[in-house]
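Continuing the batch. This is chain 6 of the set; chains 1 through 5 are on the previous pages. Same settings as before, nothing changed between runs. Recording input and output for traceability.
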Amino acid sequence: MAMKSTSTLEDHTGYWLRFVSNHVSHAFARKVEAQGVTVAEWVLMRGMLDAKAANPSQLADTVGLTRGAVSKLVERLCRKKLAERSSSDGDRRFKTIKLTAAGKRLVPVLAELADENDHEFFGHLKPNERSGLVSLLQDIVRRQGWKDLPVD
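Output for chain 6:
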């Protein structure tokens, strides 16, 4: 009876996904960090742009992060003057979070960097190849039931 050979790293689809993901993610992280924010802060800021003013729980649900992670990110964004907290009338405990003017100006800049990063790595694909790749990846996400956003 012949023994089955041990598979190599390169035999696995996950290896290639990770290989590409690491390079795409690290390039994007360098781009946004040059603007003074992290990828996680960008994710929250992008969610905040659509939400206008929201409480931390709503933001956590919107962007798929834990409430604890959102609280830490909000604190960092407030220190950077990109977000601000405000209390609701009559209830000092209820806080809403919104982007400052500087935060609102930065989000389109970061979105452009995301677009550029996408083009840098996937611009060579034909439109049907790119949409096919995205569709396959979205199908995997749906089948696995994943909700958390990839911010690391």
